[in-house]
Every structure is written in C-alpha cells, then in structure tokens.
Amino acid sequence: MDMREKISQALYRALTAAFEQTDFESSALARSLELPPEPEMGDMAFPCFSLSKTLRMAPPQIAQKIAVHVADPLISSVEVKGGYLNFFLDRVYFAQKMIEAVQGSDGAWGQSDEGSGKTICIDYSSINIAKRFHIGHLSTTAIGHSLKRIYDYLGYRTVGINHLGDWGTQFGKMIAAYKHWGSPEMVEQGGVQALSELYVRFHKEAEESPSLEDEGRAWFKRIEEGDKEALAIFNNFKEITLKDADRVYDILDVSFDSYAGESFYNDKMDRVIRELREKNLLVLSQGAWVVDLEEFGMPPCLILKSDGATLYATRDIAAALYRKDTYHFSKCLYVVAYQQDLHFRQVFKVLELMGYEWAKTQMEHVAFGMISYEGEALSTRRGNIVHLDELLDKAQEKALAIIEEKSPHLEDKEKIAKQVGVGSVIFFDLFNSRIKDIDFRWDRALNFDGETGPYVQYTYARCCSVLRKAGEVDTAPDFSALDDKESLALLKLISLFPETIRDAAARNEPSFVTRAITEMAKAYNKFYYEHRILSEDAAASAARLALTDIVRAAIANGLYLIGMQAPPQM
Fold first, then answer.
1. What's the CA gap between 515 and 509, in Å, rounded?
2. Concatenated DSSP letters of 123-139
3. Of 73, 74, 258, whose CA–CA distance to 159 is shortest?
4. Helices (H), 256-295
5. What are 13-58's pLDDT values in tens digits?
6. By C-alpha distance, which of 378, 497, 493, 368 is closest to 432?
7. How crowded is the C-beta side of 428, counted as CA atoms within 13 Å?
8. pLDDT tens-digit map of 172-211
9. 390-394, 491-495, 500-504: which has the minimum mean pLDDT?
C-alpha cells in the first residue's frame, strides 16, 4: 500500500465533491502532499495554498471545505491548521494493509514495470588498460552498479557499459617499455602491477633518452595501422588488465553488458567528422578543427588535432551515436567525476547542434565528488594511491576481527566477514549525496553503531534472528498490537520505500535508498527495544513478527539495490 497514493486519491475525491469540478490532477496532488515535521501534526499534510488562485478562495477556507468530504478507511480523521489539511491514519487498518501488501509482493516490495519498453544505457567504472584498479574508481563503479539495479527493479532494460580507456600514445609507450625491459613471463607473473612498473620506468628512462618518446609514438602508429605484432602485444595488455579487474568486480558482484572502449570507435569517427563538415559546424582554429560553442558560454570543443588525431570528445560523440543506433536508449547516463562537467556539456551540445534532439533530454552526466583516504588526497603521479583490491581485502580482514571478537561462535565467519567488509566500503561511498567529496575512514565505515553498512546489515540479521527464534506462527495477528508510535514510524517508512526507489531513479541518486534503509534500521531497533515481540499474547506476537518480517524484506531489497549482501546472521 502506497500511503501517499491512497491519501492523494482520497484528496482528489474530496476536492471533486467539495468544488464540483474534476480538473484536479491526482499525480500533482500526490506530489504536493508533505510529511509533517512532528507526528502530532498528522501523518500527511496537504498545503492548500497552490489552489487559492484557481479556486479564488483563502487556503484555510479551501481546507475546511475539503475536510468535510474526506472519506477513506485508511484515514481516521483530518484536521485543518491554517492553510493545511492534516491527515491522521487509522493505525490498525494501515498496519494490516501494509503487512498484506509487502508480504504479497513476494520479496520484491517497491518493484514495478514503469520502465517497461524503455532502455537505459549506463556508462560507469571505465577503467584504464595497463593500470591497477584503485579507490578512485570506487564511486563510479558503486554508483553505476546501484543505478543499474534500481532501473532494472523498475522494469527498464539496462545496458551496463564499461567504456575502457584503451587508446592513446601511452599504449605505444607501454609497448616500447615492454620491448626494452619486459618479457612474456614478467607480465604473466606480475600482471597489471608489472605493466604499471614498466610504464613508470619508461618515463624515467625517457628523461635521459628522449628518443624513447619517438619509439612510443611509432609503436602507437603501428597499433593504429593494425600491425599484427603491435596489436598482439596491446591485446595481451588488455586481457591482463581485465583479468585483474574481473577479480575486483567479482568481489563487488559487479558485471557489465559491454566492454566497448575507446578503441572500439576507431572506425566510427569518419561519420562524426563527415556530419560535422556537412553541417558546417567545424571551424579551423590554430591548426585544429573545433566546434565553436562561444554563444553557449563554453570554450570550443576540439574534434581533430592539428595532426589529424581524434580526441576524447570525438570518441564520445561517436559512442553516443553508436549507442543510440544500437540500443535505442531512452536515457544514456555517464557516471563520471564532476571535473568532467564541461566535457560532457560540450559533447551534448555538439550532438544537439548536429540535429540530434534527443541529446537535450536523454543524455545525462551523473557527476560525483572526489574521494580521499584517511584525510589524505590521492595522487597517481605522487604514488599516493590505494588499490581497490587491497582496500577490499583489508575491509574483510577488519570485519573478520570484529566478528571474531563479538560473535566467536558464529558459523561461516569468513563468508559473513566478506559480506560485511565489502558492504561497509560500498555503503560508505553511497551514503551521502553523490556530488559530495568523500573522506574514507575505517573507524566510520566499519562501525557497528550509527549510520553504517554493518549497522544496517546487523539490523537485518536481528530481524532474521527474531523470526528464527519464533519459528512457525499459526496464530492470526492482532493488528491492534501495532497501534503505537514506533510501529507507525516503521510502517510509514516501508510504505514510502517504493516512492524512494522511484525518486532515486529520477535523480540518479542511490543515497536515497541508502538513507531510507538506514532510517528503517534505526526505527526497527527503537521498536525492538520498546516492545516485547515474543510475548504470552500470541496474537500480538504474531502482529509484531509480521512487522519484523516486512522490515526484513524491505531492508534486504534496499541492500540489494545499492549492491550489498544481506547476511542472515552476524
């Protein structure tokens, strides 16, 4: 049962009866409903101010006229306060209908088919070939993966794209370094770390021998021309990188539908350049070809360098056209740090100028903030970097140590430690608004108290424990046992959860889900301490167990949507 929807329907009927007109929009009424700041002020409130101009009446009068026509079994009473109409729920009826609705959803509370027939392309993670997966890739990977699950949950067809950074002169330099100082055995045994060390050595050696730079450019030219040896070495580097990355993706339970990276679009550039020329959009500037965006308050978008080489923008334009032609997307999302905001505004504007109207409404840069570690900014150049596999391994070790101390007799401690440790990292990244910068700290991430992943997982495990202890329940629930403020607070949070999921998709903001399940966890623990769930009153116990069951289900759904596991015991 969607509390907001039910009240908006009752409000629509009351408005229609009070003013004898039917041109009120039910969805607009639902959006206008507010949650009062204090429970004593009602469970939901409707501000009548927006109707004052249309109805030519003062808001308090409008509220009075509506109030006498409100009739719905969900609503026990209404109260007029100034220009507000406050709704109070029938708690027993609400509890019964909510529990029936969640238990009847077959473990998929909040799931819908509203996206049926629509495709969402999500470009995320986008690792670089020959470089290790580091903590800087955490946000794009976690946000993108969560959005993919959220859109899937709402019935969309999603296409997860890992747009690999696999093109550029640096790969010619990598091959030059490999030819000078590497060997098949070295890279096979050392993996991506060996490739990174070769790249670092190349730059050190090039300071003494500048001719190495020419070698690097020559090898990249051979890649561009399809030279068999160059491509064989280059493709081997890609395989080694993806093998290393897949290990991290497996830990995070992340997968992709496409690994089409920059190199994939080599044979798709001509279309972009041809169309830009045909539409008189290319301008020669200091030897380079650009699209002038001055009238839109942006610097020119570089399409071709003076030597004829393409740039990131050229490839992103080609990628957008390919994705539209291939997947026919309703939205194409780019989960990339906020520093690339100008780049994407330029790309989207160029597509629009090319005549692709969909670029205005269907392309979106899902920006996020930077991440630091224990108060220190990270820098690849300075060597101050935290590799993601090492971070996740450390998280599991720390979680296991805590579990050994708190629950020494727990079975499957290693498995649970992995779920908790990895989950703590994901949760920490997705708790705040994605645009905010993050300072990752162990004492906060792995805290079992407060707004953390382990706290929410522990609450889920607590629900499971209560239900296991109760065993099979064959007594009909007495829903009047849930006529208390703690139960009501929980039921309201669960009722609004489907709306939270929709809002998370509309704003591309997984933190909405993260915060929602955190609030559920806090509310359940308060309920748990205030009320005896298993008591001599079997009917009351059955009702409180039913409430525990739907809390368990809702938290499990939320954990899944943000990419976390739900351990049944901790």
1. 11
2. E---PBTTS--BGGGHH
3. 258
4. 269-278
5. 999 999 877 677 777 888 899 999 888 899 999 999 988 888 889 9
6. 368
7. 27
8. 999 999 999 999 899 888 998 899 888 888 888 988 898 8
9. 390-394
- Whether residue 538 contacts residue 456, with contact meaning beta carbons closer than 8 Å, is answered with no
Measured CA to CA in angstroms, residue 69 lies from 64, 393, 461 at distances of 9, 61, 45
Beta bridge partners of 405: none
Give the predicted TM-score (pTM) of the model: 0.92
Dist CA 145 CA 125 (whole Å) = 9
Residue 496 DSSP class: T
CB 457 within 8 A of CB 559: yes
Q: How far is CA 475 from CA 58, 430, 469, in A?
A: 52, 41, 16
Q: Is 12 helix (H, G, I), strand (E, B) or coil?
A: helix
Q: Which residue in 472, 464, 442, 435 sits closest to 559, CA to CA?
A: 464
- The single residue listed with the structure tokens 């046992």 is 481
Compute the C-alpha angle 95/98/102, nearest 5°.
Answer: 140
- Residue ranges and CATH numbers for the domains of the chain are 3-89 (3.30.1360.70), 168-260 (no CATH), 388-561 (1.10.730.10)
Q: Report the mean per-residue pLDDT for the chain.
A: 92
220-247 pLDDT tens trace: 888 888 899 999 999 999 999 998 899 9
CA dihedral 387, 419, 368, 290 (to 10 degrees): 60
Q: What is the CA radius of gyration of the chain?
A: 28
Residues found in the chain? 570
Residue 257 DSSP label: S
Q: What is the C-alpha separation between 227 and 529, in angstroms, rounded?
A: 70
